[in-house]
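Hi C.,

You asked whether I'd gotten around to modeling the 394-residue construct. I have! Everything is below, sequence then structure, no commentary in between.
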Amino acid sequence: MLNNLHKQPEDKILQLMQLYKDDPRSPKIDLGVGVYKDATGLTPVMRAVKAAEKQLWEAETTKSYTGLTGDAGFQAAMIELVLANSVDHNRVAAAHTPGGTGAIHLVLEMVQMASPEATVWLSAPTWPNHPSILKHLGMKTAEYRYFDSQTLGVDFDGLMADLATAKAGDIILLHGCCHNPTGANLNLVQWAQLADLLLERGAVPFVDIAYQGFGDGLDEDAAAVRLLATKFPEMMIAASCSKNFGIYRERTGIVLAITPDAAMRPVVQGNLAHLNRQNFSFPPDHGARLVTMILNDPALKADWMAELEEVRLGMLAIRQQLADELRRLSGSDRFGFVAQHRGMFSRMGATPEQVMALRDKHAIYMVGDSRINIAGLNNDTVPVLAKALIDVGV
C-alpha cells in the first residue's frame, strides 16, 4: 500500500532554511523563515509568558482534558482581544485549535460541510499554506488581485473588480493585518468599501489574523475585523497567538465564528466540537492557559502589551532604517514602500534571478518572490542588505 505514495513537493521556505543552515559562509543573513527574532537573532520568551508559566507550575493541579473546543476562559479572552465590543459575544462560537494553521483548516472543513460548492477566494499572492490546505481538501478556489508589482502596494481597483464577480455564498479569505507575504495593507476606508461590496454580493468574509499587535497596535490591527463584524450577519476568523505572544511551539490558535443570531450559536459550536473530535479530539492546553492568564491578569497583561509594543516599534525602526539606507544608496524614493508596509514581511520587488544573486554573491537568503522577514534584520545587517540589493540591480 505504501508503495502507492508519491513524493510530495518540498516546502520552499523549509528548503530555504536548510540551504541557509548548510551554507558555510560567515557572515550570512536569513530573511526567509517567518519567525520573529530580536536583534541578537533569538526568538525570546516574553516576560509575561515566563511569569505566567511560573504561576502555572505552582498552581496547576491536573493535566486532565479540557473541553473539545478548549477552555471557555481562553475563548472569552480571545473573543475580547480580537473582537472587543464589535459584536454580541452571544453570537460568537469558538474553538481552540493547534495554531492558526489548525484554525484555518478547521474553518475550511466547516465551510466544506455547510456549503461544499462554495468557492474560496484568495489574494494574489497569499500565504502558501492557504492554497495548499484548500488543494488538500479538494475545494474550489479563485484569486483576486491584491499586490501591485509596480507600486509595491495594494492593487485596490483590481481587488474590487475581481471580487465584484464573487457569487452569493462564496468565501473571501482576507488577511486581517500585516499581509503575508507582501506587508501591504488596506486602509480603513478601503476596508469599508470592500465590506459594502461583499455585502452586496452576498459573500462571506473569512479573516486570517495572525499578527495582531505587530503592525499599528493591538486595537488598530483588529480594526478591520471588528469593522466587518459590525456589518456581516456571519463571518469566520482564524486567529493565532504564535507571534504576538511568542509561543510558536505551543501551537495556540482559535476559530471564531460569528453566527446570524444567538440561537444559531450552539449549532455552530457543536459542529466545531465535532470537527475537533475528528481531527485531534481535545486541543492542547498549555499555550492557551498562558494566554488566558496573561489577558485576565492586569499586571501580566500590561507587561505583555509593553513588550509587544517594543517588538512592534523595533520592526518599524528597522523598516525606516532600511528605507533611509536604500534612499541614500539609490538616490531615489523607490524603496519608500518598506517604511509604509506593516508586520514582519515585505516584498522587495526583486526578480528570482536577483534573489538568487543575493544568495550566491552575498549569502543573503530570502524567499524566491523576494519576501523578506524584517525581523531577521538588525542595525548592523540593514546596511549590508541595502548595499547588496543595489549591487544586484533591484
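If it helps when you're writing up: Residues 294 and 300 are 5 Å apart (CA to CA).

Thanks,
B.
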